[in-house]
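User: I'm writing a short report section on ligand binding and want a predicted complex to refer to. Could you take this sequence and AR6 and write out the structure as tokens? A short remark afterwards would be nice.
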Amino acid sequence: MSSLPTHWSSGSTRIELVQGDITDQQVDAIVNAANSRLAGGGGVDGAIHRRGGPSIMAETRQKYPNGCPTGSAVISGAGDLAARYVIHAVGPVWHGGDRQEAELLASAYRRSLELAVQHGCQLVAFPSLSTGAYGYPVEAAARIALRTIRDFLTEHSKPALVRFVLFDAKTFQTFAEALRELI
Ligand code: AR6
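Assistant: Sure. The structure tokens for the complex follow:
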């Protein structure tokens, strides 16, 4: 496993893979794996709201009372987290692959990066969207995540760093294998 790549870079931009808890990250923006009602939940979402405190939910309720469509993202402050922003991205629920899951997943990543750039974020941490409660197969999701982010960074030359913070060893390894295919 040590021979698998854990980073990719091009010009002044870089993708990194690390294993860990995303709520420990000190970055400009932490991306949340949210649901379309922005109602909170388990997984990354639960951890972010627990650690970030109630101001995050108070702000999203006020600013986005209709929630956020699948495949898109919205931004809020980060409460007590060591970040300036939380970007709430809504990935698709996996239904077998014929309900535009791939397009929706790519679009959730792209929209998150657009928001990050609009808000001047240079360091952005992502979890693996949709591969927990939403059941998206990790291998396919990792390929989409990395390709979408590489293409965005190549096109826009920012943000400077996208760090995937992968919770478990299996997801980390699957992302590293997908990164090897990409480079
Ligand atoms: N840091 C990094 N990754 C984590 C953490 C953490 N603290 N906790 C879990 N993961 P999930 P989804 C991993 O379920 O599939 C929620 O209830 C997890 O192991 O968080 O997009 C929301 O409210 C997995 O690899 O997100 C939605 O209703 C990945 O993060 C729904 O779940 C994503 O798992 C969203 O489901």
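A remark for your report: The longest strand covers residues 13-19. The pocket of AR6 is lined by residues 21-23, 33-35, 40-45, 47, 91, 127-134, 165, 167-168, 171 (CB under 6 Å).
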